[in-house]
Amino acid sequence: MPPAKPTDTAGPPRAGGRVTLRDVARTLGVSVATVSNAYNRPDQLSEDLRQRVLQAARDLGYHGPDPLARSLRRGRTGVLGVVYDAPLDYAFADPAAALFLGSVTRTVQNRDLNVLLLAAPHDSQADATLAVRNASVDGFIVYCAADGSALLRAVLERGLPTVLVDQEPQVGAVNVGIDDAGGAQAAAAHLLSLGHRHLGVLCLELSEQRSSGPVSPAREAQASYRTTDQRLRGYRAAAAPHPDATLYPTEAAHNTPDSGEALTRDLLTRHPQVTALLCMSDVLAQGALRAAAALGRRVPEDLSVVGFDDLPGSETLDLTTVWQPTGDKGEQVGQAMLTLLAGQPAAPVTLPTRLVVRGTTAPPAP
Q: What is the pLDDT of residues 128-184, one digit of tens each?
């Protein structure tokens, strides 16, 4: 005859059996709801009782409610997808991205939310939208995506709470960004006020079709990354009142010091009359400084260099740059997402930028 089923009596769980929330409740002599609250609604218990429940659970080998079952009950996964249209290793190598992601994560983790980075595949022929379409998330934070791209469309088609970072406004999403154009204009105006009239520009990517080298007017007109487009517009706005000023834009396929170094070498070889460089990131500026040293161009006596971001290491380099509030931007993005998840409307945010003048800029040599 089959063995009798175990009865729901007090006492510890049977050796070798799977420990459940009910087992913890029986062992402590409290209700199942009390144990559940220790994990899901800690504000409903005193801290002393909650710690007793958690310690008893650990002693019994109970690791908490099943996350899948809990998400099904709540209708929430507790995960936010951060969309980045470059490969994962590239995302981790970008110091500005790392600062931003750290700030977002700290903000949302206070509400028991985690972050999932949805990066693009290395294979350019692979479907970059697959991760977005299949992601089990409560909302999307779009850190980097070209305007009108399939990736951005895939995000918006999910119909989930969405925050766009430094993007063109989209219906159904909230924008958080910085004054890219204003910061770039201040950087170029600074160089022009020093007397520079031949300015090289090291651009970030202009479109999904990554390219490296001189930027034609046609390619500039087709820029689909808002950050690059706005910074170029800012540089040109500063140069507009100076008919004798010329900009020489060149594009980096990747935001790395190596790209900045290679572009600077090529630019100064093609246009030796250039006396100053406007770099769209501090990372590109690091490469520009390396190239200048290799070419025997003294900074700032022979070549002035301005970056953008004001990364933690830029002060050590004495780099003149445009500061942006990267940490604050991440916090604002996190707060906007929390507001949307609460079913409330979130207002768009544009944060200020500021030129920080250090030792890599000076008047051109006579």
A: 888 899 899 999 999 988 888 889 999 999 999 999 999 989 999 999 999 999 999
Helices (H), 9-75: 21-28, 32-40, 47-60, 67-74
Q: Between 3.40.605.10, 3.90.980.10, 3.40.50.2300, 3.40.50.300, what CATH number should domain 75-178+326-351 receive?
A: 3.40.50.2300
Give the three-state DSSP class for 119.
strand
The Cα angle at residue 56 between residues 54 and 58, in degrees rounded to 5: 70
Q: How far apart are CA 355 and CA 164, in angstroms?
A: 25
Spell out a b/e string for 188-224, using b for 16 or more CB atoms within 10 Å of the CB, else e: bbbbbeeebbbbbbbbbbbbbeebeeebeeebbeebb
| 21-65 and 180-324 agree in CATH topology | no
pTM: 0.80
Reading phi first (left if > 0) and then psi (alpha if -120 to 50, else beta), residue 203 is in beta
CA distances to 179, 214, 215, 221, 223 from 218, in Å? 25, 11, 8, 5, 9
Mapped onto helix, strand or coil, the DSSP state of residue 342 is coil
- Collapse the DSSP code of 15 into the 3-class scheme (helix H, G, I; strand E, B; otherwise coil) and give the result: coil
Statement: 180-324 belongs to CATH 1.10.1740.10: no
In the chain, domain spans: 21-65, 75-178+326-351, 180-324
